[in-house]
């Protein structure tokens, strides 16, 4: 066994886990780790705020299927991670967050840059650790990666005091990880699978609701086999977009308060709802009520999610890919697709001389033919993107669903591009969301990350402005962004090429210019403040 500092041991464990890139900002409480990182081949991306580090790790994780890693110092560095960690937790993204902490002897004494980050993040991490015993660091790091990447994925935080990082230990990597009490169940119960098959075959109007768990488990092919064998229409949650291609003849769109009418109508008419990898929270259901006449099959790897928001007739705890594979072995073929009439009533969007957001998004879809990774921020543009972009591959529509975090899109795009440099990455954002973390333009410049940013500028916090218009009789307060910068000048300041689009005549030209540009590019799209979220 080799002797080395805890800091160096941390780096060696990261290497053994296949970590190639870390996002973070150094500080005094994490300096030993950064010193050890200097001698490794692991790439470090210097972000401009710690929240962006988590979002970039998230974008990387969601495009690669690997665990994303971010690092921060103690105190404000650690607390700046909190929103990103909560975002990853709500959307089941595997993250390992490493934070520095003050000397062990000073913990609890309110010294400079001390904060109880393990206590603060306990409600929205899968697990977290405050490392007190240097000898346990290797096991803790290995456990963190295992916990983050198995079962229902999610963030794990490791808080390491400075003095612990500096101590020497005998370095040895354990051959396997066995955590008492943590045994994720991947195989569904055979009896419940049998009951699910019977319920599907006895139903007249079955509907599948596909969530983010389908994408996380790599179950898209199994889902497609089921729906094509049984001629079942598919609706999705926001996180489930891309679980099957959005141009699939059985796909009816996203459900919920901002969902497509066809999807919500199918849900209301169904006699059987098959929920796969989704929790069906309030926004997903919207005003749609689950009737007593509708049976529900709920498949999820997290038993805590089953029955949380809707009563379930057939609960199946297990990995979506494995469960669907077993169902497909037993299911027969159905002759007819019952939702033809619903599919036929798909709404035609307004066709006039004005430049609408959906015009831009559909032109992007046409120009790229779905050969991209899309990230979005949160707001009207998120819904416009969800409804109008062509998504043909799972894991290529990346957004903040559960927490709804403004500022997520651009950093997630940076992480996604590092994870999949072979893919075009386009971030769809709004002027409100973009300004939450616009300092990441500096990261784009420094690292020369060739992402494309499509910025819808309506000089409003559009979704709240629309809410005030409808429910507060136009009593607008704190939703007008009068102080917006000139985004063209801002982009230029960071050495990023840009273009402003204000009319439909220049639309195709603008998209072609953006597509053909080899480096980072910002396309500002001037949009009416009164453009509705759903036309």
Automatic annotation (TrEMBL):
The keyword Cell division does not apply. Pathway: Amino-acid biosynthesis; L-isoleucine biosynthesis; L-isoleucine from 2-oxobutanoate: step 1/4; Amino-acid biosynthesis; L-valine biosynthesis; L-valine from pyruvate: step 1/4. Residues 193-326 form the Thiamine pyrophosphate enzyme central domain. GO terms for molecular function: acetolactate synthase activity; flavin adenine dinucleotide binding; magnesium ion binding; thiamine pyrophosphate binding. Keywords: Amino-acid biosynthesis, Branched-chain amino acid biosynthesis, Magnesium, Metal-binding, Thiamine pyrophosphate, Transferase. GO terms for biological process: isoleucine biosynthetic process; L-valine biosynthetic process. The keyword Transferase applies. Gene3D superfamilies: 3.40.50.970, TPP-binding domain (3.40.50.1220). The lineage of its organism: Bacteria, Bacillati, Bacillota, Bacillota incertae sedis, Caldicellulosiruptorales. Its EC number is 2.2.1.6. PANTHER family: ACETOLACTATE SYNTHASE CATALYTIC SUBUNIT, MITOCHONDRIAL, THIAMINE PYROPHOSPHATE ENZYMES. This is Acetolactate synthase. Residues 4-118 form the Thiamine pyrophosphate enzyme N-terminal TPP-binding domain. It comes from the Bacteria. Its cofactor is Mg(2+); thiamine diphosphate. Residues 377-525 form the Thiamine pyrophosphate enzyme TPP-binding domain.
